[in-house]
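Q: Focus on the shape:
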Amino acid sequence: MRHLVFLLIAASICCARAAEPELAIINAVVSSSEDGPPVASDYRFSPGDYLYFTFEIAGFAVHTENQGEVRKISLSYTVVPMDAQGRPLSEAVPGDIVTTLNPEDKNWVPKRRASFLLPAFVAAGSFHVHVTAKDAFGKTETARDLPFLMGGVRLVPADSITIENFRFLRRENDTQPLSLAAYAPGDTVYARFEMTGFKIGEDNRCRVAYSVTVIGPAGKAFIQNPDAARLDEGGFYPPQFVPGELALEMGKKNEPGAYTVIVEARDLIAKQTYQLKQTFSIE
C-alpha cells in the first residue's frame, strides 16, 4: 500500500512538472518595415537597409506575493543580427521586462521590437537574427535564430588584397555590365569593381588606394593617375569590401582599337598590392 501511495505521489509530481510552461520566444518576425509582415524566404536585404524585428516571450514564471494578490514577472532579452560566423553586424539591443500583472493579464505575453541598420560594405550571403531571453524568477533561459538573406556584391574570399567583379558600364548609374566593352570616340568609359582581402586595422578600419593607367593601341600610356582614390572605411562591423570606380573621358580624336586599363590596388595597412588588366575598344 505504501509503495502504491509513493508511486501516485511521484506520478503527480511528474505531471505537475510536465505541466509547467517552458520559456519560449514566439511569433518572431523579420521584416523590412516597422511592424510590417514577415519577409519572404527568398527576400534579400540590401547593404545599408534597416532590418526590423518583433517577437514575444511566453512560458515565463510568475512570482506571487501577499497570498497571490501581487503577481510579478522579471525577464531580460538581447537581440543582435549576426553573420554566418556568429559575428555581430551591429550593436546588440538589450532589454528588461519587469512588471506587475493585473488579474485580467492571465494570457498576456510581452511583445518587443528592435531595428538595425545593416552594414554598407557587407557581401551577399546568409545571416540570422539571434535573440536570447532569460527568466529571473523561473531561472530559465532560451534562444532562437531567425534567418535572413542579404543581396548585393558576391565575393570570393581572399587572403590578400584583390580586385573582383570588374565590369564596364555604358552609363554611370547602370547596374548591368556591358557584354561587349565597345565605345565610340568621345564617350566616357565607366567601370566599377570591388576590392577585398585587405587587412583590417584598429577600430575595424581598412585603408586602401588604387591607381589607374590606360594604354592605347600604340602601346603608350595616355592616361596615368597614380593616386586615383584613397579609401578609409570602418565601423562596428569590419568592411568585407570597398568599391572602386572609373570614369575615363575618351577624346573624339582617340584612334580606334584596343585599350588596356591597368588598375593597381594597394593595401596601405598590409603593404600589399594587386594589379588587374581589362580591355575595351574604341570603334
In short: The chain has two domains: 21-150, 162-282. Residues 162-282 form a domain with the Immunoglobulin-like fold (CATH 2.60.40.3880). The chain has one helix and 17 strands. Residues 215 and 221 are 4 Å apart (CA to CA).
